[in-house]
Design goal:
Blueprint: E1 2-5, E2 21-28, E3 44-47, H1 56-75, E4 79-82, H2 90-96, E5 101-102, E6 108-109, E7 117-124, H3 143-147, H4 165-171, H5 178-184, E8 187-189, H6 193-196, H7 216-219, E9 220-222, H8 223-227, H9 231-237, H10 248-261, H11 268-272, H12 280-293, H13 296-306, H14 313-320
Parallel strand pairs: 3-8
Antiparallel strand pairs: 1-2, 2-7, 3-9, 4-7, 5-6
Helix pairs in contact: 10-12, 12-14
Amino acid sequence: MAWMDNASRAHPTALWPDARSAILVGQSYAPADDSLALLNEKSHGLVSAYAARRDYHDVVKGKLKQLAQWLARESGEEVKVFVDTAPLMEKPLAARAGLGWQGKHTNLVSREHGSWLFLGAILSAAAMEADAPHEDNCGSCRACLDICPTNAFPAPYQLDARRCLAYLTIESKTQIPREFREAVGNRVFGCDDCLAVCPWNKFAADAREQRMAMRDDLRLAPLAELAALDDAAFRTRFAATPVKRTGRDRFVRNVLCAVGNSADSALAAVAEARLGDSSPLVRGMAVWALARLLDAEAFQRLKSAWAPREQDASVAEEWGA
């Protein structure tokens, strides 16, 4: 926990004009497994370490509310709690408050916890003494920049979200651009590469919050199993996790992209089963996967059967690509 006065430096007052201080809290979610090694499990879909567990918004916000209630009683001033729920610049605030520094990958880095941190903030109308800002300890290291599979960092400390696999597999509501599909690999929700490679992670202990313990069944699961999920099964499987926010259609889109990257011809049947899906995102990526897994003759047979009946222009384009 850290304290910071003059909170207007990062513009929390735009959210709440009465804010005079910001308390930033970080909670480790350091995984016990090796995120980079799991990229080799080509027949399984990999979910980002932060998401293969109970939704951090709920757990961290609950803890912050308890702290905020205590603070309000002690200070006699109003407080407000935020956990990635408003346009608040938590990372620069946390750096100014001494929790860590923003690394070259733009995420917060801590001496104690490396790159694996959830952040939350309490804004207070009370004036408080500030902690000292944290110095930058990245030095000449550029491991996070060099490992990025899509070159999403145009320069140190700069991120082009349009190229980031976390954005493309979680936030983007459109089809994954063709230029980035191979780079997706077996990632079906998010990307941890720039976090996992950070040398400061060697000091991070495994996360101990039991309510957010990693679920192995969510972290890595067979692609064939994930591709078969309908909306009801998706909601049940990912209930109370961050994955549920993306929705079934975008998630299965990602899964089929991973199927296309698997080099496993046995998974062609999985993609073919999704050609009649109600979602154009799913159908389009199924076509792309089949084009990579089948020989030209087998793909042409499917194209002759399915392409003439396709009504969506984006999916028709996949057939013609």
